[in-house]
Amino acid sequence: MMKNTIALFLIINLVFLGFTKAQVPPPQAPVCPRDSINFISCSNVFRLSLILINKQTVLPCCTLVAGLDAAAASACICNAVRITIFNFLTINLRVNQVLRLCRILPPAGFRCA
Predict the structure, then answer these.
(1) Which of 3, 8, 30, 62 could lock onto 102 through a cystine, CB 3.0 to 4.6 A?
(2) Burial class (CB in 10 A: 0-12, 13-18, 19+), 34
């Protein structure tokens, strides 16, 4: 009788535990698919952008990130920013401005890390 009870208990556990969901792994951080050496001209934009950001000043960045999705473009521009700017308080604002001028919507909740 005890063997039957244990077997029934194990079968019920297997059935109910089979219905549980596995937790989805967190998404990976976006990676820039292009070479960082190409973004030197884009990093110069951020040096000049202390004064003014407009379509003419961000044109080098826009041509480099053309054809990339928003996450990859954001990662590429963040890499360019890391090369030049050490004032981390204004980085996210400038990256979002550059992405918008390039007609790329930044991913929701995106922050340069």
Answers:
(1) 62
(2) middle
